[in-house]
Specification:
Elements lengths: L12 H24 L5 H9 L5 H8 L6 E3 L17 E8 L2 E8 L10 H17 L3 E7 L7 H20 L4 E10 L4 H5 L2 E5 L4 E3 L3 H8 L5 H5 L1 H8 L4 E3 L2 H14 L23 H4 L10 H5 L9 E3 L7 E8 L2 E8 L5 H16 L4 E7 L6 H5 L2 H14 L4 E10 H6 L9 E4 L4 E3 L3 H19 L5 H17 L3 H6 L12 H12 L16
Parallel strand pairs: 3-4, 4-5, 5-6, 5-7, 6-8, 11-12, 12-13, 13-14, 13-15
Antiparallel strand pairs: 1-2, 2-3, 9-10, 10-11
């Protein structure tokens, strides 16, 4: 493959300005990530430790293989909302347990009792989807008081999906191991109840559909929680528990031991050669990107810093120049890459469609690097078929069967988001850089369009247009749209799987590619009707 030659001048004023701006955004990201580590008030943490309990992240650290990578997902879910803080009351991600790639999820029992707010539920459902799509065994470290009752109206109908998913994974031979460290009550009792394997910690696990007070209210029966749903009862009498651990360490040991007994995955591809590092420093990505998404990003400069040996076999380099497509390897895994180098024209869309078909033909995952303001508009382009050509690319993206991974590295606006595999198009993983913006269109364009519509409405009604009120409204809308377009707002809404430091792009992609290659990859042979 051809080696990409860099043209970056690290001494230029633009590079330095970009680097400083991106560094400031990374500082903001670090501050949010620090808050996501919150595991409850000090008195709740101290009480847990006095009772011989570990914290959620401590349990995860012991469960996962020592010094192996762990990809935490959705760490800022709920950011900016009114819930239990960024990340909610669940820590989850992908790591290695007994040498096996797994989804590991740990309830933060010291924060609100581990009860589930709306953001935590949505995060949990996304983690479940990722496990299902990639056929990853799941280990649940359970300690939760169940649904956050003040939010029950938003939670109840969706909450059942998590239990359904456990059984559907089991049907496909994807096991779930639940380790119960404390309370798992009401609907939460179905987590260990529906799991393939359940481990209860002696004298600590409490699993029942209704606790002693509710039992007293419903049936007038007086019973203590240990007799009603303790580890000993469920291990010796009910059979809900498969293993009774002496303590938390013993329970984690059991989970790791069970993982050793599971059948090996039918892995699609495993790299077996020495991995070439990129020729250029990943730190330079900060100077190539810009906090101002109006400034262009040269796609090949980013690609050169994430692919093996900076080698890239570009497809159709002279055609549809605003879309860069080609084949490469990342940590030894073959990939197709589609990256924006400007607005999408008909030629770019046709090129993208063609390339997606080739990736499916070759059973190769596709990496989408988004920096897109949308498709080109105007009379000339409408006459040239921009709608049908854009639709062809969206058709191909929608119906492709090879895994797709998306990184929003700048703008992600309008139908460009769709064509470049946005959240609605089921990427296996989707991440954002801290400078990314996502919306129907940019704030200037949106407010400008609204003003034109209002002026036309006033003209048709025969009334004067209020310039002062319009200016105030435009300023308000600009701020509102800008706020709701940021990467931090988007990640709080779970529109992505996390914001990453651009310098870590290659490492994130390495784990994601290992995950998607965990099962057979078979490209699509069928698409919807292409309007020619």
């Amino acid at each position: 493959m051809q080696i990409l030659k860099t043209k970056v001048n690290t001494k230029s004023a633009q590079y330095i300005e970009n680097y400083e701006g991106m560094t400031a955004l990374l500082k903001e990201l670090a501050e949010h990530m620090e808050k996501s580590l919150f595991q409850g008030k000090e008195r709740h943490i101290n009480r847990a430790k006095e009772r011989g309990k570990m914290l959620a992240r401590e349990r995860l650290e012991l469960l996962l293989d020592q010094d192996a990578p762990f990809l935490e997902l959705l760490p800022l879910a709920g950011l900016g909302g009114k819930g239990f803080g960024p990340g909610g009351t669940t820590v989850g991600g992908i790591g290695f347990i007994s040498g096996r790639l797994c989804m590991a999820i740990s309830n933060v029992g010291t924060n609100k009792g581990g009860s589930v707010d709306y953001a935590t539920l949505q995060k949990s459902l996304r983690l479940s989807d990722i496990a299902m799509e990639n056929e990853l065994p799941v280990v649940n470290l359970v300690e939760s008081a169940g649904a956050n009752l003040p939010e029950q109206a938003k939670i109840f109908n969706y909450g059942g999906e998590s239990f359904k998913a456990i059984t559907q994974r089991s049907r496909k031979g994807i096991p779930t191991i639940s380790v119960v460290f404390g309370n798992s009550t009401a609907g939460g009792a179905y987590v260990p109840g529906m799991s393939d394997y359940s481990i209860f910690v002696k004298d600590k696990a409490k699993v029942f559909l209704a606790g002693p007070p509710l039992v007293k209210m419903a049936t007038n029966e007086v019973v203590d929680d240990e007799s009603l749903g303790g580890a000993a009862m469920h291990s010796k009498v009910s059979g809900v528990s498969d293993y009774m651990a002496e303590d938390e360490l013993d329970a984690i040991r059991m989970a790791r031991e069970i993982m050793e007994t599971l059948k090996a995955p039918n892995t699609h591809f495993t790299p077996n050669k020495k991995i070439e590092e990129p020729l250029y420093d990943a730190d330079e990505i900060l100077g190539i990107l810009s906090p101002d998404i109006k400034k262009p990003i040269e796609a090949r400069e980013i690609i050169a810093r994430i692919v093996d040996g900076s080698r890239f076999s570009e497809f159709k380099p002279l055609y549809g120049s605003t879309l860069v497509t080609g084949f490469a390897e990342i940590h030894g895994y073959p990939v197709g890459i589609i990256s924006n180098n400007g607005v999408l024209f008909s030629e770019s869309a046709n090129k993208g469609t063609h390339f997606i078909q080739l990736c499916n033909q070759n059973n190769v995952p596709i990496i989408f690097l988004q920096n897109i303001t949308g498709f080109m508009v105007g009379r000339e382009y409408e006459e040239g078929g921009i709608i049908k050509n854009g639709a062809k690319m969206i058709n191909a993206v929608s119906n492709t069967d090879v895994p797709k991974i998306t990184i929003m590295m700048g703008a992600s606006y309008g139908a460009g988001n769709y064509a470049m595999n946005g959240r609605a198009y089921d990427p296996r993983f989707i991440f954002a850089y801290p400078n990314a913006k996502i919306a129907v269109m940019g704030p200037e364009q949106l407010t400008g369009v609204m003003e034109i519509i209002q002026r036309e409405a006033a003209r048709k009604a025969g009334i004067p247009f209020d310039e002062e009120q319009s200016a105030q409204m435009r300023q308000y809308m600009m701020k509102d749209v800008e706020k709701q377009s940021t990467a931090f707002y988007a990640t709080g809404q779970i529109w992505d799987d996390g914001i990453l430091d651009p310098r870590e792009t290659r490492n994130y992609l390495a784990i994601c590619l290992a995950v998607v290659n965990n099962k057979e990859i078979k490209g699509s042979e069928n698409y919807g009707v292409f309007r020619m």
